[in-house]
Fold:
Amino acid sequence: MEDNQELESVVHEKYDENQIQVLEGLEAVRKRPGMYIGSTDVRGLHHLVYEIVDNAIDEALAGYCKNIHVTLCADGSCEVQDDGRGFPVGIHPKMQRPAVEVCLTILHAGGKFGGDGYKVSGGLHGVGASVVNALSSKLEVWVYQDGKIHHQSYHRGKIDGDLAVIGETDRTGTTIRFWPDVKSESDPDGIFETGEFQYEVLQTRIREMAFLNKGIRIVLTDERADEKQEQVFHYEGGIREFVKFLDKNRKVDFDEPIYMECVRGTSMAEVAFEYNDSYTENVYCFANNIHTPEGGTHLQGFRSGLTRAIVDYSKKYKLVKDNEPPLQGDDIREGMSAIISVKLAEPQFEGQTKSKLGSSEMRGIVNDLVVDKLGQFLEENPQIARRIIDRCCGAARAREAARKAREITRRKSVLESASLPGKLADCSDKDPSKCEIFIVEGDSAGGSAKMGRDRHYQAILPLRGKILNVEKTRQDKVLGNQEIKNMITAFGCGFGEDFSEEKLRYHRIVCMTDADVDGSHIRILLLTFFLRYMRPLIEKGYVYAAMPPLYKVTVSKEIHYVYDDPELENLLDRVGRDKKPEIQRYKGLGEMNAEQLWETTMDPSRRSMMRIEIQDAIAADEMFSLLMGEEVEPRKEFIAKNATMVKDLDI
Structure:
């Protein structure tokens, strides 16, 4: 008791005015970078580029910028150049410093908090350029304005010298070049774990920005390799071309996407969509060029307007038979790819990550747009309208069949689950946060896993062969697949519209397949199912891939498990090849006994697992439709293009 009183006294004595820290300038950004860019890994690194490009895009939205150049330089820096108005260079009335310096060194300073600088802006907080400056070991800015070139440089957010005129020019705009502040042994005060920009990551985001801002021209150049790489992104068709890009690996129903746009006051909305040969809905929403993966009011307006327009048309011309199920929103959106892009003066987002639009007026704007323009389109194109209604009716019939099939897959009791055809070996603990289920390829591996597991929190569900490729199959057929029904029943969280995270029985769903081609195929079939029909499992971080070893290496009775070929070479170099190590190549999990499987792949203290994440939803959709969809030619081209990357293929 005395010890507790003494400790409490010490705590109270220590918390006074001397413990209140005041971080000046951009010190707060360097102290807590994750608050501003999410992380200090490769994702946060690329966020720096996006912040500067977004500033240039805002100039384009204001009508002053047509060209943006993004260059990955050989010295590790990134340069972004635009032909907008250029940062203001006059003396700021309050700060008594050049405005460009204020924007680059003070948080929440910029032209997006009022006044007439920007009517529409993606960056709400005004922290973009200053955050990039704070997290760069060096940053330089050139402003081209009024016939003069102004220049200033910074070091970790602090100015190296005053803004200076260094020449004359006949252009306008801004160029920013920055060197990310990378942590190293010689510089432990750095911020980022890596300074290596990934061309493909930037390419995806820049392409997206060009689609969303029709007419703008963005050039991405990589000067780091021996041969310079350069791409130009320029789409006069805007989001119409975006929809075509989404469906480039699918068959589409019509030659051109259906497009509509409107302007209401200071707000603007545009929608483009088309139908394809898939059975899933791919709708992506943007507000002021910001992807809102959780949707929001613009998505709600689109869905309500779409349903109303098509249902009203079908009723007017009596296109749905009395004995058929009435059309619902899910039926109308089956096999649809759509882009919804809205731009508004003061968007309200739900949550710090801007993942959901909350501006209530956008629901009405988008709803009215779709009802009016789509209704007009259907009246003017009766043949297309009838084809749309026919496919919606087909989806409705399949939905009704799926509803009946889903009743069978509702969560059974624990006693019933023990006798499932999938041979689920459940765990005894009922706390989902502690439980994990291994989806195992084949009865042989399933037997080893059942014997080797910890029965308290590890469940085993063996699969018989390969599950259905759901990318090519409608929902009612998906629910007819026994292996898929077993998984849905075991997980307990429902399916599709019935999905409930609260009912999920395991917070780690582990795909444990052989480390060969067949094993990879089974894993991708599982991931296709999760992505298309139980997507929240991936989005919430519940899905994992086990990493079983490729080799067992025995050296003087000492056993080493090795997970890839480079690791094997390193091990042989370290232990010495003269000792003639015994090397066993595992062709499958079934070759391991229960103890080995536990030690290498299932024991939490020793195993390695990959968590499956969706870093880019559009890129993920593109890849799954390419690899798993109906269209063969794009897949053949992809295989031919990437065949040289495969080495020592096990067949």
